[in-house]
Amino acid sequence: MVDKKKPTPASQKKTGAAKRPTTKTKAKKKKAPLPLILGTAAILGGVGGAAYWALTQRQAAPGDLPIGAEVIPQEALMTVSMTTDANQWQQLREFGTPQSQAVFDQNLAQVRDRVFTANGIDYASDIQPWVGQEITVAFLTPPVPVPQASPVPGAPLATPSSQSVLMVLPIRDPLKAKELLERPRPQAAALGDRTYQGFAIKESQDPTKPLSVTVLDGKYLVVSTEPKALDRAIDTYKGTVSLASTPGFKQAMAQIATPKPFGKLYVNYPATAAVSGAAANTSQGQGMGMNATLEREGIRFRGVSWLKSDSQRKFDTRNNAKIMPDRLPADTILMTSGGSMKQFWKDYSQGAATNSVVPLPPFLKPDTLQKGISETIGMDWEKDLIDWMDGEFSLALIPAPEGSPPTLPGIVLLVQTSDRRTAEAKLQKLDEVMASKYKVKLDQSQIGGKAITSWKLPTGGSAVSHGWLDDNVAFLVLGAPIAESLVPRPSTSLAASDLFKQGIPTDLNPHNGHFFINMERALSPKGFTLLQLPPANRDLISAIRSIGVTAAISGERTSRFNMLVGLKKGNPPAALPSPTLPASPAPLPSPTVSP
Fold first, then answer.
1. Contact 402, 422 (CB under 8 A)
2. DSSP string of 85-139?
3. 78 with 113, same domain?
4. Quick check: bond before 573 cis, omega within 30?
5. What domain count does the chain have?
6. pLDDT digits over 424-466, tens only?
7. What is the pTM of this model?
């Protein structure tokens, strides 16, 4: 974890041994991304202990690929790399509210004690003096056991057991590592010895706390929660296919390279699809990578995702999003936008058909949506509606006007069209269906010289209103009566608001859309009242001011996104509680040091 101890200048210098070449930074240096920090802590901490080696100190490494990419098997589901720079961890702990800082520090201390203390390790004295510039954690699945020659009839087939974790700690100073790792120290469980491919391995003899450790040629200390996973890492190091040789991996990660990332994330889509039980060839995606950097405003993420080189699916490379933030009011709670509703639906449909990584719930599947709309209003979703929505679009939540009764925010759809005549005919048909089938009363009015059609429910009140902002942008409002916030134009637009300008990344230009949420408004009583969170989660979320995302298509098979999680500035962090080491000495394997 992060203590207040800071490495001395001498400890920050690279030794002559085990120097790792510094990867050249790109002409355009881009700041990075990684998953939500506490989400990562929860994931890594929950996989059985020794999975969160990022709670540390020291200088972060520039470079495109995760540390240890040549040690991690190509079929790894996911990798997370984090800096060991004490200053960056201190900077992270300075963000938040007093409540969120307390929760975050508590999580850090718990993971530190579960990962290090429970295994008889004191990070500051046993690891900090020799560890390299970042640490990588890889999530693997154990190989499927070989089935018996004569399986019992009716017995289930053998399947992969629980997920295993592989940790790669680069050794910056082999002499210091040898000295410290051979020093007798308390250890929670006795360690046994075995050898694989010429490498000495130490393993826990406690089956409830599996742990396997080896050192690869004085360059890496590799730790695993499952013995076979460590063997696979050794095989990879000796020449089998590694993460570094994944198709498109190096090229994609180069697009988001940054000199001093806080962390890096990689997700292997085909491997994840296979684990989910889907056929491997149903996933069109190859992978997704993110880098994260800490900035004064919060955490900046840079991401890239790419399709397989032989995928049938291709992206539309037009980046057309320009106007929608100017059409929404400054008090907008949440908005998402894109360059074309018609293209978005096409991509969504294709993605849903081939997405085996994150299966959609039934009500979000394209065929279910189309069937539901057809049965509800008797119109064809694609032919009657989507077909004319060929320009920019935005879906947003806008709070109810001041003085109005408590209600959910207004849900607003803005759509640009190149065929207003067809759009008006289809909207008129929709009005007629609602009047005849559901007995709504159609009310015509004007706001700012613009004609508005509202559906008045038999029980009173407006359910829906729609109209035109200008010659080619239609709007439809559901819920709170917020049409006056849109028509004719907002007095202060979302695009002009300080929070939006500070929170939306602008370095992807041209782009194909935005996502933005004003978290303070979302958590307010008149915000998104459905966003009810447990107290601990709410404390953490309350540290966020806003989340802004800009997306762009960078090629037929590559898409990019940049995200800024704006965080509040908290109090100077206090020292974490001191760990209590268990008793019972035993050394870890020592790195081989060349004379």
1. no
2. -HHHHHHHHTBS-HHHHHHHHHHHHHHHHHHTGGGT--IIIIITTTB-SEEEEEE
3. yes
4. no
5. 2
6. 999 999 999 999 998 899 999 998 889 999 998 877 666 799 9
7. 0.80
